[in-house]
Specification:
Blueprint lengths: L1 H29 L6 H13 L9 H8 L5 H8 L5 H15 L5 E11 L9 E5 L4 E14 L4 E9 L2 H4 L2 H7 L10 H14 L4 E6 L6 H9 L3 E6 L4 E3 L5 E3 H6 L7 E8 L2 E11 L14 E8 L6 E8 L5 H24 L10 H28 L12 H11 L8 H30 L2
Helix pairs in contact: 1-5, 1-12, 1-13, 2-4, 2-12, 5-12, 8-9
Length: 448
Amino acid sequence: MTTYQNQVAVEATIAQAAWDRVFRAAMDAIAGCFTRREPRTTAAEMISGLLAEVDTRNCWTLAQTLGHRGLHRLQHLLSRARFDQERAREEIARLVVRELAGQDVVLVADETGDAKSSTDCVGAGRQYSGAIKGVGLCQVAVHLAVVTESVRVVIDRALYLPKDWAADEERRAAAGVPEEVVFATKPEQTVAMVKNALELGVRAHWFAGDEVYSGRGLRQEIREFGLGYAVGVSHTHTVTDGAGRRRNAREMIGKVQPHQWMRMRTGHGTKGTREYDWAWADVRADDTPDGYKDHGVSVLVARRHRYTRELSFYRCWAPGNVTLAQLVEVICRRWRIEETFQLGKTFTGLDEGQVTCWNSWMCWSLFSLIASAVLALTAAATATADPAGPARLIPSTCPELVRLLRAFALTPPVRDTAHILHWTAWRRRHQATAQACHQRRHALHDQP
């Protein structure tokens, strides 16, 4: 046991050094985006505070954790402080590009939702979100991540405004939505983010997404960027075979012979290695950009569960020769953005901001994005160091890394008695005020 503890101690030392380097690099990258020193310092505190050991993450809990006597500093940073948010996001993306230089990158798009209790919250409406497992009142944001063999980092996000919300001038004015922000579909938001990522220097060769991002228009745009793609499609998705016959995806894969299915390893789970059966069929491309010659490989890929025999389908295109194993690797990388969302919601407050206005949402999501990026790059640097030791320990995971950072690198939460009593009294006083205001509002509405 002592040998194992020694190895973990070495990893903790490496993680602390990696965190200090990456966090300092991130803060230096965004330093020029602030016009004053005070909000820049508060931003650094907030980004590290998002990873602190707190039950929930919002202005109240973070202000108490950081030792502030009130909310004014954090609320000013989120709503009124002057700094270039877009430039800050781009600088973090450039930092990610530098840290991942030389690695094979796949751009992955996906959305996640946060349940809300009022449509007054910017972008909130009744819409579908997998995060809430159905249709409900929620916010939905589209995210773009760079995924390598070992690293997954979100570099951009866009809040989706439902069409009725985007057209409601009264709600837009109340939430502070800029005039230049208009309704855009999720694929349109994705195209804009992919274009920006490539302009920032992301050296990607592939794009991956689920059924939301399988439309012909988006696939055509991806090809114009010079990328291959692997996107999920439904079993009713129509394709054209080599003879010109149109079939849906299930019928097309039904023509595959039993011996043409290949079993491949797609990763490791808590219960061991994941393996699925895979097959593909040639199809005609229907998304060739105007003026382009139709070179490349267009195929329909199917994944079959070993036991349930459930099928999933993916439409793929590559600019050159490609193997089934390469396409399977791209498809599997798309799944890793779900792990990124889970880590963001668990450790960096991705869905806990409790902000209602446009500017506050943009700031909160930016700081959560930066905290997640620093954590991911720290994990990558720690894994690259790979200290020699016994083989009976699994590689350090992000949750374990966060525990080590909380113990050795992050500033611990302020927990002295006077500070806790101050914040207990502060919360109860403001909650009493809020309760009285709600009661007066309900009384006014109930009057004839």
